[in-house]
Design goal:
The protein is α/β, with parallel strands linked by helices. The protein has two domains: 192 residues, NAD(P)-binding Rossmann-like Domain (Rossmann fold, 3-Layer(aba) Sandwich); 211 residues, FAD/NAD(P)-binding domain (3-Layer(bba) Sandwich), CATH 3.50.50. Helix content is 33%, strand content 22%. The chain contains 16 helices and 18 strands. The chain has a seven-stranded mixed β-sheet with strand order 3-2-1-4-18-17-16, with helices on both faces. The protein has a six-stranded parallel β-sheet with strand order 6-14-7-8-10-9. Helix 1 packs across helix 13 and helix 9 runs parallel beside helix 11. It starts with 6 loop residues before the first strand and ends in a 9-residue tail after the last helix.
């Protein structure tokens, strides 16, 4: 690479991982020019499209991410999809290095009989629907009275809470109108959360759990017979204040008298139940079969051979997210990640791909909180900076057309309607104006074409 120009770097994916990586790289001391590519017309990834609308506290993360991008030293190129609008060979024309931060947006699979029945859904798809993701259908079949949610993490709690909550209690949020209408018509009465291990092994945060207990006209029901604590459980409780708080909240709920529970809807939390089969009849879900488990002493659990059948009409699996393969990039189908060594992408032979990096969930899997994403990005950027300092230049690729205008000219020639930061600001203001007219934070624009047209000034934006 010529020493008289800036290092050109593309970051693919404008969620927290991509924005943190861009920010850290911009402050690394390198003379660098960064483009942040995003396949949707709006940035912020799962913070915009993966956080429940009644969690505005978490959505405040967007404020911090917004401040990074509004500085202007990182160029946003949104509505540009890697693998469709351009591929790796195209990126290598314009950039010396590429960082993939595409995250994990698919539902992890659950290999049990009946999981493919029509009323068996992935939690990630449901979250995308109620968050107004432009790439999912506008409708959702909310016809079940009794529903199962499989999983013991915060996504399971989000799904259970949104299903059980009265739609009017979501009106102050940014929930899309079509989502409100369908939730308002839902006949649901009972949501059952199933966890295969005990109370000390769940992945709920204590805050999320307590919030679930405050939902108006929704009782939380837990069962004393589902509580068990082995040596591993006690060790977890003593070593983690978070676990201690979760267990205390759940234990307190076991003391609630059934006679005091008069809400019209209920969330039941079941521990030590492993989903064994989704029961079907006539091609539709009619129940769930679970196997009672027992703790092994180290916090793990094994089946006991005792089964329970629960009458249900829908099942949501919230057993984790999973990465998606990318064109021309190695992929680990078992783990759902891009193979890498501390962020340096490697091929099937374990050899480093020059100038190709990964960060975030597509690098390490869908685990950890926002803080982990920052440290993860720091590790990847540290190696990129080291590679940029290599004297022989073999650790990076050398762009043949490094001018920032070259990539936008290329996308224009392909008819790609790129949305830059100024365009997102127009769309952002439009959504907030729609919300202000209704006394809400914002009202999301959902159709992709409409988002793009407003951002690009091809459709009049709302003003108040």
């Amino acid at each position: 690479m010529s020493s008289n120009r800036s290092l050109r770097v593309a970051v693919v994916g404008a969620g927290p991982a991509g924005i943190y990586a861009s920010d850290i790289l911009s402050k690394s001391g390198l003379d660098v020019s960064i483009d942040l590519l995003e396949r949707l017309p709006a940035p912020f990834g799962l913070v915009r499209y993966g956080v429940a609308p009644d969690h505005p506290r978490i959505k405040q993360i967007i404020v911090a991410l917004h401040k990074v991008l509004e500085r202007g030293d990182i160029r946003l190129l949104a509505n540009v999809e890697y693998g469709v609008d351009l591929k790796l060979e195209d990126l290598r024309q314009f950039y010396d290095a590429v960082i993939f931060s595409t995250g994990s947006i698919r539902d992890a699979s659950l290999a049990i009989p009946g999981i493919d029945l029509p009323e068996s859904y992935g939690a990630a798809d449901f979250v995308s629907w109620y968050d107004g993701h432009p790439d999912v259908p506008r409708t959702w079949p909310l016809e079940a009275r009794e529903v199962a949610v499989l999983g013991a993490g915060n996504v399971a709690l989000d799904v259970a809470r949104i299903l059980a909550k009265h739609a009017d209690d979501l009106l102050p949020t940014e929930i899309p109108a079509n989502v409100y209408d369908l939730l308002a018509a839902s006949p649901i009465t009972d949501v059952h959360i199933f966890a295969r291990r005990g109370p000390a092994q769940v992945k709920f945060s204590s805050l999320e759990l307590r919030e679930m207990g405050k939902v108006p006209d929704v009782d939380v029901v837990v069962y004393p017979e589902d509580f068990d604590f082995d040596e591993g459980s006690m060790a977890a409780i003593h070593s983690s204040n978070q676990t201690k708080q979760v267990v205390k909240t759940l234990t307190d709920w076991t003391l609630n008298e059934p006679s005091e529970m008069k809400a019209s809807r209920r969330i039941h939390v079941h521990f030590l139940h492993r989903p064994a089969e989704v029961l079907g009849e006539g091609g539709h879900v009619v129940g769930l079969r679970t196997e009672r488990t027992a703790l092994n002493g180290d916090g793990t659990a094994s089946g006991t051979g005792e089964f329970h059948d629960w009458p249900l009409q829908a099942v949501y699996r919230a057993v984790g997210y999973f990465g998606s393969p990318l064109v021309d990039i190695p992929f680990d189908d078992l783990l759902g990640v891009i193979p890498n060594r501390e962020g340096r992408v490697v091929d099937v032979d374990g050899e480093q791909l020059p100038g190709v990096y990964a960060t975030g969930w597509i690098k390490r899997g869908p685990i950890g909180l926002i803080g982990h994403t920052k440290s993860d990005a720091s590790e990847t950027i540290r190696h990129l900076v080291e590679d940029a300092a290599e004297q022989d230049g073999t650790a990076l690729h050398t762009a043949t057309e490094p001018s920032p205008a070259a990539v936008t000219d290329f996308l224009t020639s392909r008819g790609v309607p790129v949305v830059e930061w100024s365009g997102w600001e127009v769309l952002d203001a439009h959504e907030k104006a729609l919300g202000e007219a209704e006394g809400r934070i914002r009202v999301k624009v959902v159709p992709r074409d409409e988002m793009t047209a407003i951002a690009r000034g091809e459709q009049a934006a709302t003003t108040v």
